[in-house]
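Moderator note: this is an archived Q&A kept for reference. The question asked for a predicted structure of one protein chain; the sequence and the answer are reproduced below.
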Amino acid sequence: MLSFILSAKRLGKGLWRSFKRPQFLSLFTTLFLIILSGTLFYKGTEGWYWLDAMYFAVVSLIPTGVETGLYPTTAYSKVFTMIYLIVGTGVMFIMLLMLGRSIVDFSLNEEEKEEVKKRLKK
């Protein structure tokens, strides 16, 4: 349980740092709109409940291979799903990569950056 709490705290700090970056905010907004469009599409076309449609829209973009038990049934839905996965998986991957970098925080702090700049000028 302690490990989960520490990981959640680290995730929160990583999210906080990530949202300060304009690129991450743009990716987050894009991903939100992609998931929203998928949710609305599956709700309308497949007739799934809201939670099922959102669950499928999110889980299908995460590269883990989670079995949802939900499948597109019409040819139109299958074509949409193929395009949705190609576009959405790329955006999700880049966003998770940026979030991971913020959590690990490999970047130098401000003092170290200034010190490196001074050394390079000499």
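Archived answer notes: The chain has a mean pLDDT of 86.
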